[in-house]
Amino acid sequence: MNSRPFILGSLAYVLLAPPTLSDTLVDPTRPPNARAAASTNSEVLKLEAILVAGNKRTAIVNGKLVNAGDRLDDAVIDAITADSIRYTRRSRSYVATLTTPHPLGIRPAASQGASP
After folding, report:
1. Is 67 inside a domain boundary?
2. Does the residue 4 lie in any domain?
3. SS (H, E, C) the chain
């Protein structure tokens, strides 16, 4: 039995198959309820963490490190407090607060006298 026609036919099918077949591939490691990553230009900034070193505070917002005065797309970070950031976007002020408590239950000391 000559397998040459079968090989040529299979090769032609693979080469001429519609490109939409490759568009249906799904990442097998992606959770079934996962959504596409949000862009940093969304209306609300997501505060993920606040890092404190001495008197300096740095925040992680939408996956990026920011300090007070930094610009993140069209938003300006006005202040970083112990558990929130205050920012301005299009002449309006907003506050983003940490939504997840510290895993060890640690809260910032109220008597430190740090200003926002």
Report:
1. yes
2. no
3. CCCHHHHHHHHHHHHHCCCHHHHCCCCCCCCCCCCCCCCCCCCCCCEEEEEEECCEEEEEECCEEECCCCEECCEEEEEECCCEEEEEECCEEEEEECCCCCCCCCCCCHHHCCCC
Task: Please give the residue range of the domain that contains residue 75.
Answer: 47-98
- The model's pLDDT over 4-45, given as tens digits with 9 standing for 90+, comes to 777 777 766 656 655 554 456 667 787 777 665 544 445 678
- What is the total count of domains within the chain? 1
Query: What's this model's pTM, rounded to 2 decimal places?
Result: 0.52
**What CATH number did the domain enclosing 58 receive?**
2.30.30
